[in-house]
């Protein structure tokens, strides 16, 4: 990289750099040539894993800071578009907080890019989209399907989320807009996802469908934390199709894979192959 290119790169400050997406953002920022800093509460945390992670940041060339100067705000609202959520509590209230933050940012005229990455692959794909079994790995014979299973969702691998986010940092096309991530190969219904897994694994799964009304009652009456949150998120994603049931308005949003076609993102097909 030339010295001219280096000077054109923004300096990046990552808040929450030791979190699930934060660590990917840090490494993506460094990999793409940004001068990178991480805002931390404590440079010597008690958690040994965080100590090692901070050490790896420093060894990769990042700095640890306790000051905050923001030229473009990219709020941590990673997930569905907070202004297009159609669900119930507890997820409804969580997204309302993020939507209110958008309104404050806009009212104050703060330069920003909202990142809508949709569904984390590492959360949803290991259980083949069964939110009642998150963390349990692929099912062996039965799988729970909310609704008819035909609504399209978007699945993004975390490293790709970080790469697209950091590509957007210096891009005038993303300033004061929503950066949507909709890789064509990663837009699938739950039924599509199950069929893809069945083909790869050679297993046929019994699909146990839960009607929307039963899902609603499950959330409100029976499900305890954290299942109630997962179900209320899934009601929006897998039943009501909130990640794909609208066209991106070019006056307020842009799509990542169209802006950066050179990024070789990980497909759902590729990710599922890792589970075999």
TrEMBL record:
Q: Which domain of life is it from?
A: Eukaryota
Q: Taking every annotated instance into account, which residue ranges of this chain make up the domain NmrA-like?
A: 9-66, 70-272
Concerning InterPro entries, the annotation shows: NAD(P)-bd_dom_sf, NmrA-like, NmrA-type/Isoflavone_red_sf
Q: What name has this protein been given in UniProt?
A: NmrA-like domain-containing protein
């Amino acid at each position: 990289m030339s010295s001219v290119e280096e000077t054109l790169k923004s300096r990046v400050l990552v808040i929450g750099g030791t979190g699930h997406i934060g660590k990917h953002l840090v490494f993506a920022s460094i990999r793409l040539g940004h001068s990178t800093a991480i805002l931390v509460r404590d440079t010597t945390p008690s958690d040994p894993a965080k100590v090692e992670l901070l050490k790896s940041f420093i060894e990769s060339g990042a700095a640890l800071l306790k000051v905050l100067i923001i030229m473009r705000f990219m709020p941590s609202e990673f997930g569905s578009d907070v202004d297009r959520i159609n669900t119930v509590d507890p997820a409804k209230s969580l997204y309302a907080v993020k939507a209110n933050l958008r309104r404050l940012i806009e009212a104050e005229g703060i330069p920003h890019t909202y990142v809508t990455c949709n569904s984390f692959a590492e959360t949803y794909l290991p259980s083949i989209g069964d939110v009642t079994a998150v963390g349990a790995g692929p099912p062996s014979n039965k799988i729970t399907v909310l609704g008819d299973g035909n609504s399209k969702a978007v699945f993004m691998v975390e490293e790709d989320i970080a790469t697209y986010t950091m590509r957007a940092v210096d891009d005038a096309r993303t300033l004061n807009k929503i950066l949507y991530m909709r890789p064509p190969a990663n837009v699938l219904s739950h039924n599509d996802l199950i069929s893809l897994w069945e083909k790869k694994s050679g297993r046929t799964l019994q699909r146990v469908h839960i009607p929307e009304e039963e899902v609603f009652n499950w959330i409100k009456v029976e499900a305890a934390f954290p299942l109630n949150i997962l179900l209320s998120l899934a009601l929006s994603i897998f039943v009501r199709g909130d990640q794909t049931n609208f066209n991106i308005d070019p006056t307020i949003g842009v799509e990542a894979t169209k802006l950066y076609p050179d990024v070789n993102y990980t497909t759902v097909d590729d990710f599922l192959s890792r589970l075999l």
